[in-house]
Amino acid sequence: LGHEIFGYKTQSSRKALCIAGYILSCGALLLLFYWKPEWDVWANCIRCSLEEADIVLLRTTDEFRVYSRKTVTWISVSALIRSRSDYPATAGEDSIFSKAIMKPSLQVKSIQVQKIRYVWNICAKHFQKVGALEDHHTCSAIHAKFGSGLTCNEQYVRRVICGPNTIDVPVIPVWKLLVKEVLNPFYVFQLFSVCLWFAEDYMEYATAIIIMSLLSIFLTVYDLRQVRHLTFFHKEGLFLISGKGFQELESHHLVPGDMLVLKEGKTLLPCDAILISGQCVVNESMLTGESTPVTKTHLPQADNIKPWRMHCAEDYKKHVLFCGTEVIQTKADDRGVVKAVVLRTGFNTAKGDLVRSILYPKPMNFKLYRDALRFLMCLIAFAAIGMIYTVCVFALNGEEAGEVVKKALDVITIAVPPALPAALTTGIIYTQRRLKKKGIFCISPQRINMCGQLNLICFDKTGTLTEDGLDLWGLLPSERNCFQDIHSFPADHSLPWGPVFRAMAVCHSLIVWEGKIQGDPLDMKMFEATNWNEGQGSTHAIVVRPGPKASCAPVEGVTILRQFPFSSALQRMSVIAQEIGGEKQVFTKGAPEMVAMLCRAETVPSNFESKLLLYTAQGFRVIGLAYKSLQAGKQSTDLTREEVESDLTFLGLLIMENRLKKETKPVLEELSAARIRSVMVTGDNIQTAVTVARNAGMISPMSRMILVEANKIPGSFSASITWKPLEENKPEDYRSLLALGSGQYHFAMSGKSYQTVAQHFRHLLPKLLLNGTVFARMSPGQKSSLALKVAHAGISLSEQEASVASPFTSRTPSIACVPELIKEGRAALVTSFCMFKYMALYSTIQYLGVLLLYWQLNSFGNYQFLFQDLAITTVIGVTMSFTGACPKLVPYRPPSQLISPPLLLSVVLNILFSLSMQIFGFVVVQEQPWYSKTNIHSACLSANNHMENSSSISSLGLHGMRDEAHGQTDNGYKSYENTTVWLLSTINCLIVALVFSKGKPFRQPIYTNYVFLLVLIGQLSICLILVFADIDDLYSKMDVSIVPRWVFFLLQIFLLVLCLQEAVIENRALWLLLKKTFRYHSKSHYKRLQRVLEQDSAWPPLNETFFSDSVAISVEGNMGGHSNPTFDSNEDVF
To answer: Membrane-crossing residues (predicted)?
Structure first.
């Protein structure tokens, strides 16, 4: 999250006034300042420059604009450097450490934001992040400045300023957590309610609320302990070079700029580090979820003025060892040891970023939560009206002031249900359990509701839509610039010995790990086809030799001297290899079009492009192979990648078959039927991607593909963009197909074109994304900017139980989890709406009933409240959410906001019906001939005194006749009005729960929720027992008198009206007709754009080329650690 920063200085006079305010308000002002830190700062401090500030106020730059208060602290380094009169600048004058130390006090001014420390840069006049090596260093500068380590003095200074290299999440003590939870506005309201209920002897429900709150706190503690378990770090002894030679040091003492020597064997990395010599193989599954080992190469000693990251571009990660990953193999070069410079420590590391994304999740802009807060404000306003009414009624009738205050405050706890937030989360908790049973794990439960609104899914291709493994289908060798006969796999005869065979045997990044050959699936299949084996040579170099099943080869083996790992930016990999006793050769494999560009033109067949199109159009993955011989006497370590990968000889095309997973097509068809768009984002060839998209059902047979090509014009700052149909041998007239609508065409573009469009044709990007379906040859950075950083939810397909790299992890590695997640998300969202409507109506029904009784200075009894609050509402709140998701995805989404006409109309009409029914009952009971305001047994006495009129009395439906001789004490609540209104409101709550518990189309029918139905039947039975049982002790306890039977007739009418009302309000066809009649259109940006493009006959401009202006927009992505969909750490400076 970006932040704005403001400087403030504490003023003594203001602080004294605030302290007086705290005392006079009995702490209420302090509580308000706790909730609103900006008010605290504005009240206690005066605005000043950041340089003078002792308090800073941070404000997020997103739409939430959340404030946080930070105290400026001072770090003293005088004890470390005062012994030297002339202290040398740490690692050069351009270091932040030399720019942050104030002279002569030798202190550093700092603040800490979300576990990251920032220090004041005296020269630049801003706060700058420490704990990471500065970005401006060039490749040669890193080797020169940090290649021999830091001096002891530099280490000590950096250690004090940066802090320890740990990712520690301390468990908050229970008492602190309790205080923090209690100070939450919701819990403060709960505490207020509980105190009021205890004052009114309403012990039972108050106790129940306390128990639920303690349970909530226990779950919070448990979650924090889980995070601590995730981030626990084992400290290891590592060798590092200092000015005085080798020294073993504990990992928490490491600082940016230290140099590590990586020993042989497995090592868990305690920090992010840049490899400056040797080579490593790393397991990065903790960060990426990918179990394939990754090869890391050392940073080149390039002598230029570009910062090292800009020089390496997107391949900078190939030189970085990330914290939390495991080095499983090291290979030293001619310099003898494998060395790395510490790049980032603590929470600045890639692992630290992931942990911070859990501790400080990115706030979600979800309409439901915003609307819930607004609705809550409306209920509070509603309660304020009730308070005024209560004060007027009770004061005018001469009640005591204390009683008036208690009754008025009681109205707030009735109108605003304290259990509302808990009720909204129950649906999410049950959904999380159902997802877990389906093998989908969630570390961000609040995103489940978000999944109910998804309407676009981006998929990777290999391993997601297609099988992880590739099958070797064939080899198309090339000799003397002509393609030869294809060699199919598996074949009866093996490949003949030659350059192609050698390329397949050595041009890979496979390693032997735990006795098995491991690495990229493509490399595995290619190497297996040779029937050779891999092992270690005497100098730690990898040696491949013929296996038992291999054909006869004229060499003992081939040694891989040096690897240039696969680069997504360069779209290729290369190795330098040498036959035992033979010459050195270079072998390259990669994207065919890229490999062909590196080859001598005379070695590339003239029909290269047509052959490539032939196989990619069938959905094959095609790899180009090339080689050249190196001149004798040249050291492989001295050669640059550019020198190695030039003037190559084209060897041929390797054709791999990547089959679709069996679940892919049915899932994509299901999503398409539900009008959920599917998009493919892949690093593969564009034609292969289009074919796979067609075969998978992502593109319908009647739709056409349009290739969007954008290129920068050489020697100019402008660019061109062209739309042209992909040739698919279809004779139909293209314009006639386009006339069918925007859904009949799809755009495909490469990563290079996407980057150019983003820079030069920014205004066209929304139009292209609206119908973009295939994005091919995309680099990881481009994938991140297109999908990962803007995604509302991410799913990792991993066999591990849970992954911190994504909010959701599916144990089953197939996309079958996607529709399941959407179904459950929709069900959870609808459940949240149902619960909100029910809780709002329940509190309003009770509120109206109490206000009616207040007119007679009466109210519900404690056990009447308890029955409604605990036995009815709490049990319904728990069981209503048991209803599961509907097994079928419908082609529309549930509403995303509470402030929508159907829902508002439903709530308002229900309130009016409830009010009408209660007023009707309240008035009609007073009109009965047996009614007496003072004698609650008047109806019974009337029946005893006038036996001759028994038939007429019976027709009135009187029940529950009791004699005064029982001597029951009256607590003042018992009256005919009380009984009538309470019974009407209680059964009203049951009816509302039944009607609001929606089933189809997003949830299963209500009758499948057996527990909920049994609860409703049980609650209704208890109500009927109260009416008909005539149990004196029970009646006395519940403050119930006789009940007229016409109440049930009234309730039947209400149930019928409510069902009819819901049937009309929830009628989707009716609302669509109203929208069409009144010409209402969605205001969302993409819907508006879609309507505009449908009416634009000139879009898309087929076979036309546009040129941009000479101004380009920079779209440099975040150069930090691994891309993280939930957290974007892009804040180096305040």
So the answer is: 16-35, 205-224, 372-396, 408-430, 839-857, 863-882, 903-925, 979-997, 1009-1029, 1049-1074
